[in-house]
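Case study 2.
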Amino acid sequence: MTNANETAKSLDFSGIVDALSRTQDALRLQMDAFGEEIDADFTGLAATMETVRGKIAEIDRYQAVLDEMLTASATSAAQIEDRIGWGTDHSRALREALDEALDTGPQQLSGALETVARRAAIPLGAGFDRLDDIRRRGRLRVAVEPQFVGLSFRKTPGGPLMGLDADYARAFAAFLGVACEFVEHPWSELTQLLHTGRKPGEAPADLVWSALPPDPGYHEIAYSETYTWLPFAMYRRPGDTWLTSPRDLAGKTVGIINDPGAVVVLEKLGLRWSENSARPGGRVRLGNLIAFNDQGRIHDALADGLVDAFMVDRPIFHWAATHPESRWRGRFEVVPGNLSERPYYYTVAVAATRPRPASCPRSTASCASSWRPRNAAASR
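Prediction:
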């Protein structure tokens, strides 16, 4: 027994146990510290990844903006190229007619010119009056943008055009006692249709009745009196309560219709972007301004987040924002107020032909004046 006790004493591991315990405590502290460092690293990594995702989303958005701008530029370039091609063809035909007249004798010149003018749908009569011509043929050709929701649009593909301007145009045709034929075309090119058709050989439109404010930049155009007054408004997505006025748009992307009048309103509000950054009076610098030629894109551009705000004639967004049948209902809302110094307004446009350019505009004004009281609510 004595030997056993002595052996037990000689095999006392308490010192080793104490050392192991201290080592375990030290390792536990080190592991806790290491875990905290890992947690901090993961938190930092998560924040970095979130920043990266935000940057990628921002890049994607800028890419979408750039794509929209490039598409609009390509469309405009193609339209200009087409017009140049038509002009070249007409010039060639005129030159050939003149050459033929020189070969066959001056007496053939008049007939040759009439042939060229007929192919280009150009009236030559000195006493030509468009209103008389409309009544003679029994048909009014009205140029409209077919995707102006609320003004001239279709609820379903293939359905009839409806909306304020479509109703006005039909009422004017009935006022004249003729049929109404809509000539559908992108809004930014409608005034061109008063002088030439959409394709070679097509007759020009008789008038434009499609959300058109008068602008001195349009060439050889005569305007009727105002038929509708309306606010020029700013629309935002629901929940974007930070956006209450144009002052909140610094660094943001704004959409407008490709309308010279809209650009003037924005400039008077002190908004500046890359193209007008040097103009005096700037108070708010936008990130981007997108001027849309394709009116079928404008509502989705705001609803889907391509633009932060859309500044537009209120009727063009009102039906889309509020009507129970609109697929955009509840996806954007108006910011109260009128952005323009005075109410925005629409007129009817005709080609400024001579010697009687005003007969058609006077008739539209007469019709609109008699029809407006029953439809005034449509413009609110």
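The chain has three domains: 15-67, 121-229+346-379, 232-342.
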